[in-house]
Protein backbone atom coordinates (compact mmCIF):
# COMPACT_ATOMS: atom_id res chain seq x y z
CA UNK A 1 0.00 0.00 0.00
CA UNK A 2 2.83 2.33 0.85
CA UNK A 3 4.62 1.40 -2.34
CA UNK A 4 1.56 2.32 -4.30
CA UNK A 5 1.47 5.72 -2.64
CA UNK A 6 5.12 6.53 -3.43
CA UNK A 7 4.53 5.80 -7.07
CA UNK A 8 1.90 8.54 -7.23
CA UNK A 9 4.29 11.25 -5.83
CA UNK A 10 6.17 13.60 -8.36
CA UNK A 11 9.90 13.01 -8.75
CA UNK A 12 12.23 15.02 -6.59
CA UNK A 13 13.77 18.13 -8.19
CA UNK A 14 17.56 18.64 -8.03
CA UNK A 15 17.88 22.39 -7.24
CA UNK A 16 21.58 22.62 -8.04
CA UNK A 17 21.15 20.93 -11.37
CA UNK A 18 18.27 23.23 -12.18
CA UNK A 19 20.35 26.30 -11.29
CA UNK A 20 23.17 25.10 -13.49
CA UNK A 21 20.78 24.61 -16.43
CA UNK A 22 19.34 28.08 -15.96
CA UNK A 23 22.83 29.64 -15.92
CA UNK A 24 23.74 27.74 -19.07
CA UNK A 25 20.58 28.92 -20.83
CA UNK A 26 21.27 32.50 -19.76
CA UNK A 27 24.81 32.35 -21.15
CA UNK A 28 23.54 30.99 -24.44
CA UNK A 29 20.91 33.74 -24.62
CA UNK A 30 23.53 36.47 -23.87
CA UNK A 31 25.86 35.02 -26.52
CA UNK A 32 22.99 34.95 -29.00
CA UNK A 33 22.00 38.55 -28.22
CA UNK A 34 25.62 39.67 -28.53
CA UNK A 35 25.88 38.09 -31.98
CA UNK A 36 22.62 39.74 -33.00
CA UNK A 37 23.85 43.15 -31.84
CA UNK A 38 27.09 42.66 -33.79
CA UNK A 39 25.10 41.79 -36.86
CA UNK A 40 22.92 44.88 -36.35
CA UNK A 41 25.95 47.15 -35.99
CA UNK A 42 27.54 45.62 -39.10
CA UNK A 43 24.29 46.18 -40.98
CA UNK A 44 24.04 49.78 -39.76
CA UNK A 45 27.71 50.40 -40.65
CA UNK A 46 27.15 48.96 -44.12
CA UNK A 47 24.10 51.14 -44.66
CA UNK A 48 25.99 54.25 -43.51
CA UNK A 49 28.94 53.36 -45.80
CA UNK A 50 26.61 52.91 -48.76
CA UNK A 51 24.96 56.27 -47.98
CA UNK A 52 28.35 58.03 -47.78
CA UNK A 53 29.42 56.53 -51.12
CA UNK A 54 26.07 57.53 -52.64
CA UNK A 55 26.43 61.12 -51.38
CA UNK A 56 29.98 61.36 -52.75
CA UNK A 57 28.92 59.94 -56.12
CA UNK A 58 25.95 62.30 -56.25
CA UNK A 59 28.23 65.24 -55.44
CA UNK A 60 30.62 64.24 -58.22
CA UNK A 61 27.70 63.88 -60.63
CA UNK A 62 26.29 67.30 -59.68
CA UNK A 63 29.76 68.86 -60.02
CA UNK A 64 30.24 67.34 -63.46
CA UNK A 65 26.78 68.47 -64.62
CA UNK A 66 27.36 71.97 -63.22
CA UNK A 67 30.75 72.21 -64.96
CA UNK A 68 29.28 71.02 -68.26
CA UNK A 69 26.45 73.55 -68.06
CA UNK A 70 28.85 76.38 -67.14
CA UNK A 71 31.21 75.41 -69.96
CA UNK A 72 28.33 75.36 -72.43
CA UNK A 73 27.18 78.81 -71.30
CA UNK A 74 30.70 80.23 -71.53
CA UNK A 75 31.24 78.77 -74.99
CA UNK A 76 28.04 80.41 -76.18
CA UNK A 77 29.00 83.87 -74.91
CA UNK A 78 29.93 86.12 -77.90
CA UNK A 79 33.63 86.91 -78.02
CA UNK A 80 33.06 90.63 -77.70
CA UNK A 81 31.38 90.00 -74.29
CA UNK A 82 34.29 87.83 -73.18
CA UNK A 83 37.02 90.29 -74.08
CA UNK A 84 37.14 93.94 -73.36
CA UNK A 85 37.02 95.44 -76.83
CA UNK A 86 39.96 97.82 -76.83
CA UNK A 87 39.74 99.13 -80.39
CA UNK A 88 37.30 101.20 -82.42
CA UNK A 89 36.66 101.19 -86.13
CA UNK A 90 37.29 104.51 -87.87
CA UNK A 91 35.26 103.82 -91.04
CA UNK A 92 38.25 104.91 -93.11
CA UNK A 93 39.19 102.61 -96.01
CA UNK A 94 42.26 103.38 -98.08
CA UNK A 95 45.33 102.13 -99.92
CA UNK A 96 48.69 101.89 -98.14
CA UNK A 97 52.28 101.17 -99.16
CA UNK A 98 54.44 99.06 -96.84
CA UNK A 99 57.54 100.87 -95.55
CA UNK A 100 58.97 97.51 -94.44
CA UNK A 101 57.94 93.88 -94.39
CA UNK A 102 54.65 93.62 -92.46
CA UNK A 103 52.97 90.68 -90.75
CA UNK A 104 49.31 89.91 -91.33
CA UNK A 105 47.49 88.65 -88.23
CA UNK A 106 44.16 86.84 -88.07
CA UNK A 107 42.57 89.16 -85.49
CA UNK A 108 43.51 91.87 -83.00
CA UNK A 109 42.97 89.66 -79.93
CA UNK A 110 45.22 86.63 -80.57
CA UNK A 111 47.38 88.17 -83.35
CA UNK A 112 48.33 84.83 -84.89
CA UNK A 113 50.43 85.49 -88.01
CA UNK A 114 48.85 84.23 -91.22
CA UNK A 115 50.81 86.08 -93.93
CA UNK A 116 53.27 88.79 -94.96
CA UNK A 117 53.28 92.01 -97.01
CA UNK A 118 56.61 92.80 -98.67
CA UNK A 119 58.33 96.18 -98.40
CA UNK A 120 57.09 98.57 -101.11
CA UNK A 121 53.99 96.50 -101.82
CA UNK A 122 50.67 98.35 -101.90
CA UNK A 123 47.62 96.91 -100.17
CA UNK A 124 44.00 97.92 -99.68
CA UNK A 125 42.46 98.34 -96.21
CA UNK A 126 38.71 97.90 -96.08
CA UNK A 127 38.71 99.81 -92.79
CA UNK A 128 41.07 101.01 -90.07
CA UNK A 129 40.90 100.53 -86.30
CA UNK A 130 42.58 102.46 -83.49
CA UNK A 131 43.71 100.76 -80.24
CA UNK A 132 43.60 103.60 -77.71
CA UNK A 133 45.48 101.80 -74.92
CA UNK A 134 48.51 101.16 -77.18
CA UNK A 135 48.08 104.08 -79.61
CA UNK A 136 48.14 101.63 -82.51
CA UNK A 137 46.51 102.07 -85.92
CA UNK A 138 45.55 98.83 -87.68
CA UNK A 139 44.33 98.22 -91.22
CA UNK A 140 41.69 95.62 -91.94
CA UNK A 141 42.41 93.45 -94.98
CA UNK A 142 40.05 90.93 -96.52
CA UNK A 143 41.97 88.12 -94.74
CA UNK A 144 43.14 89.76 -91.51
CA UNK A 145 44.82 92.82 -89.96
CA UNK A 146 48.13 94.65 -90.41
CA UNK A 147 49.77 97.18 -88.08
CA UNK A 148 50.10 100.55 -89.81
CA UNK A 149 51.42 102.74 -87.00
CA UNK A 150 52.23 102.71 -83.30
CA UNK A 151 54.27 104.77 -80.81
CA UNK A 152 57.51 103.55 -82.38
CA UNK A 153 56.83 104.69 -85.93
CA UNK A 154 54.90 104.38 -89.19
CA UNK A 155 55.10 101.00 -90.89
CA UNK A 156 52.99 101.92 -93.92
CA UNK A 157 52.27 105.13 -95.82
CA UNK A 158 48.79 105.99 -96.98
CA UNK A 159 48.50 106.54 -100.70
CA UNK A 160 46.96 110.00 -100.42
CA UNK A 161 45.73 112.06 -103.35
CA UNK A 162 46.57 115.53 -104.51
CA UNK A 163 44.44 117.60 -106.82
CA UNK A 164 45.60 117.87 -110.44
CA UNK A 165 42.57 119.54 -111.99
CA UNK A 166 39.40 120.40 -110.11
CA UNK A 167 37.56 121.47 -113.27
CA UNK A 168 34.53 119.28 -114.02
CA UNK A 169 34.26 117.90 -117.52
CA UNK A 170 33.57 114.87 -119.68
CA UNK A 171 35.77 111.87 -120.49
CA UNK A 172 35.40 109.45 -123.36
CA UNK A 173 36.21 105.77 -122.93
CA UNK A 174 38.56 104.60 -125.71
CA UNK A 175 38.80 101.00 -124.46
CA UNK A 176 36.81 98.93 -121.93
CA UNK A 177 37.81 100.01 -118.41
CA UNK A 178 36.74 99.34 -114.82
CA UNK A 179 35.10 101.72 -112.34
CA UNK A 180 36.49 101.37 -108.80
CA UNK A 181 34.89 102.34 -105.49
CA UNK A 182 38.07 104.21 -104.47
CA UNK A 183 41.21 105.45 -106.26
CA UNK A 184 42.97 102.10 -106.06
CA UNK A 185 43.00 99.06 -108.33
CA UNK A 186 42.75 96.96 -105.15
CA UNK A 187 39.43 98.53 -104.14
CA UNK A 188 36.01 97.14 -105.08
CA UNK A 189 35.18 97.01 -108.78
CA UNK A 190 31.76 98.61 -109.19
CA UNK A 191 31.17 98.13 -112.90
CA UNK A 192 32.77 98.36 -116.34
CA UNK A 193 32.58 101.05 -119.02
CA UNK A 194 32.54 100.15 -122.69
CA UNK A 195 34.43 101.74 -125.54
CA UNK A 196 32.62 104.87 -126.69
CA UNK A 197 30.94 105.56 -123.33
CA UNK A 198 31.11 109.13 -122.06
CA UNK A 199 31.15 109.94 -118.32
CA UNK A 200 31.02 113.12 -116.32
CA UNK A 201 34.23 113.99 -114.45
CA UNK A 202 34.21 115.75 -111.08
CA UNK A 203 37.97 116.23 -110.83
CA UNK A 204 41.39 114.76 -111.59
CA UNK A 205 43.70 113.58 -108.78
CA UNK A 206 47.13 112.00 -108.45
CA UNK A 207 48.39 109.52 -105.81
CA UNK A 208 51.88 109.41 -104.29
CA UNK A 209 53.01 106.99 -107.01
CA UNK A 210 52.14 109.50 -109.73
CA UNK A 211 49.09 107.54 -110.89
CA UNK A 212 46.29 109.87 -112.03
CA UNK A 213 42.59 109.22 -111.55
CA UNK A 214 39.33 110.65 -112.85
CA UNK A 215 36.76 111.10 -110.09
CA UNK A 216 33.21 110.28 -111.19
CA UNK A 217 29.88 110.70 -109.45
CA UNK A 218 29.77 106.97 -108.63
CA UNK A 219 33.42 105.91 -108.52
CA UNK A 220 36.91 106.30 -109.97
CA UNK A 221 38.62 105.41 -113.25
CA UNK A 222 42.28 105.45 -114.17
CA UNK A 223 43.39 108.33 -116.33
CA UNK A 224 45.24 106.39 -119.03
CA UNK A 225 45.24 106.12 -122.80
CA UNK A 226 41.94 104.27 -122.37
CA UNK A 227 40.09 107.35 -121.05
CA UNK A 228 40.61 110.93 -122.20
CA UNK A 229 39.09 114.24 -121.20
CA UNK A 230 37.26 115.61 -124.23
CA UNK A 231 35.68 118.84 -122.99
CA UNK A 232 35.43 121.18 -120.04
CA UNK A 233 32.25 121.65 -118.12
CA UNK A 234 30.00 124.40 -119.34
CA UNK A 235 29.68 127.71 -117.57
CA UNK A 236 28.09 127.61 -114.16
CA UNK A 237 24.38 128.13 -113.98
CA UNK A 238 23.09 131.17 -112.17
CA UNK A 239 21.96 129.03 -109.19
CA UNK A 240 25.37 127.29 -108.91
CA UNK A 241 27.19 130.59 -109.12
CA UNK A 242 25.02 132.14 -106.40
CA UNK A 243 25.48 129.05 -104.21
CA UNK A 244 29.25 129.09 -104.63
CA UNK A 245 29.42 132.79 -103.90
CA UNK A 246 27.33 132.26 -100.79
CA UNK A 247 29.67 129.53 -99.50
CA UNK A 248 32.88 131.41 -100.26
CA UNK A 249 34.94 132.52 -97.26
CA UNK A 250 36.74 135.84 -97.61
CA UNK A 251 40.49 135.38 -97.80
CA UNK A 252 41.06 137.87 -94.98
CA UNK A 253 38.64 136.10 -92.61
CA UNK A 254 40.55 134.33 -89.84
CA UNK A 255 39.63 130.69 -89.20
CA UNK A 256 40.18 128.47 -86.14
CA UNK A 257 43.31 126.32 -86.02
CA UNK A 258 42.86 122.65 -85.08
CA UNK A 259 45.43 119.87 -84.61
CA UNK A 260 44.61 116.28 -85.61
CA UNK A 261 44.77 113.65 -82.86
CA UNK A 262 44.60 110.85 -85.45
CA UNK A 263 45.03 110.35 -89.18
CA UNK A 264 41.70 111.65 -90.50
CA UNK A 265 40.00 111.45 -93.89
CA UNK A 266 39.03 114.60 -95.76
CA UNK A 267 35.55 114.20 -97.22
CA UNK A 268 33.89 115.99 -100.10
CA UNK A 269 30.83 116.68 -97.92
CA UNK A 270 30.32 116.68 -94.11
CA UNK A 271 29.30 113.01 -94.04
CA UNK A 272 31.04 109.66 -93.52
CA UNK A 273 29.33 108.49 -96.68
CA UNK A 274 30.87 111.27 -98.80
CA UNK A 275 33.81 110.62 -101.10
CA UNK A 276 37.31 110.83 -99.68
CA UNK A 277 39.43 113.60 -101.16
CA UNK A 278 42.51 113.54 -98.95
CA UNK A 279 43.95 112.96 -95.48
CA UNK A 280 44.97 115.05 -92.49
CA UNK A 281 47.94 113.39 -90.77
CA UNK A 282 48.43 112.94 -87.03
CA UNK A 283 49.49 116.24 -85.35
CA UNK A 284 48.90 118.20 -88.57
CA UNK A 285 47.35 121.64 -88.00
CA UNK A 286 44.54 122.84 -90.27
CA UNK A 287 42.54 126.07 -90.43
CA UNK A 288 38.80 125.54 -90.07
CA UNK A 289 36.62 128.26 -91.58
CA UNK A 290 33.18 126.67 -91.16
CA UNK A 291 31.73 124.38 -88.44
CA UNK A 292 28.43 122.50 -88.41
CA UNK A 293 26.72 119.31 -87.26
CA UNK A 294 25.30 116.42 -89.27
CA UNK A 295 22.08 114.53 -88.57
CA UNK A 296 23.91 112.14 -86.19
CA UNK A 297 25.24 114.94 -84.01
CA UNK A 298 28.84 114.76 -85.26
CA UNK A 299 30.68 118.07 -85.62
CA UNK A 300 32.34 118.77 -88.99
CA UNK A 301 34.73 121.50 -90.02
CA UNK A 302 35.57 122.86 -93.46
CA UNK A 303 39.28 123.28 -94.09
CA UNK A 304 40.30 126.48 -95.81
CA UNK A 305 40.82 125.82 -99.53
CA UNK A 306 39.80 122.17 -99.03
CA UNK A 307 36.90 119.97 -97.99
CA UNK A 308 35.50 118.66 -94.68
CA UNK A 309 36.84 116.68 -91.71
CA UNK A 310 35.00 115.29 -88.71
CA UNK A 311 36.13 117.23 -85.63
CA UNK A 312 34.28 115.10 -83.06
CA UNK A 313 31.31 112.82 -82.56
CA UNK A 314 29.38 111.57 -79.53
CA UNK A 315 32.17 109.15 -78.58
CA UNK A 316 35.51 110.75 -79.53
CA UNK A 317 37.25 114.05 -80.26
CA UNK A 318 39.44 113.83 -83.37
CA UNK A 319 40.81 117.39 -83.46
CA UNK A 320 41.79 119.76 -80.66
CA UNK A 321 41.76 123.52 -80.95
CA UNK A 322 45.20 125.11 -81.05
CA UNK A 323 45.58 128.12 -78.84
CA UNK A 324 47.69 130.99 -80.12
Describe this structure in words.
By secondary structure, the protein is an alpha+beta fold. The protein contains four helices and 26 strands. The strands form seven sheets. Strands 1, 3, 4, 6, 7, 8 and 9 form a seven-stranded antiparallel β-sheet that branches. The chain has a five-stranded antiparallel β-sheet with strand order 25-24-23-20-26, with no helix packed on it. It starts with a helix and ends with a strand.
Termini distance?
A: 161 Å
Strand content: 35-45%
Mean pLDDT: 79
Residue share in helices? Answer: 25-40%
CA-based gyration radius: 46 Å
Major β-sheet, in short? 7 strands, antiparallel
Silhouette:
rod-shaped
Content-based structural category: alpha+beta
Number of helices: 4
Please provide a brief summary of the model:
The chain is of the alpha+beta class and 324 residues long. 25% of the residues lie in helices and 37% in strands.
List the helices and strands and how they pair.
Elements: H1 2-7, H2 15-75, H3 79-82, E1 87-89, E2 94-98, E3 102-105, E4 113-117, E5 122-125, E6 127-131, E7 136-140, E8 145-150, E9 153-154, E10 156-158, E11 162-165, E12 169-173, E13 177-180, E14 189-193, E15 198-201, E16 203-206, E17 212-216, E18 219-222, E19 227-232, H4 238-247, E20 256-260, E21 264-267, E22 276-280, E23 285-293, E24 299-303, E25 308-312, E26 319-321
Antiparallel strand pairs: 1-6, 2-5, 2-10, 3-4, 3-8, 6-7, 7-8, 8-9, 11-16, 12-15, 12-19, 13-14, 16-17, 17-18, 20-23, 20-26, 21-22, 23-24, 24-25
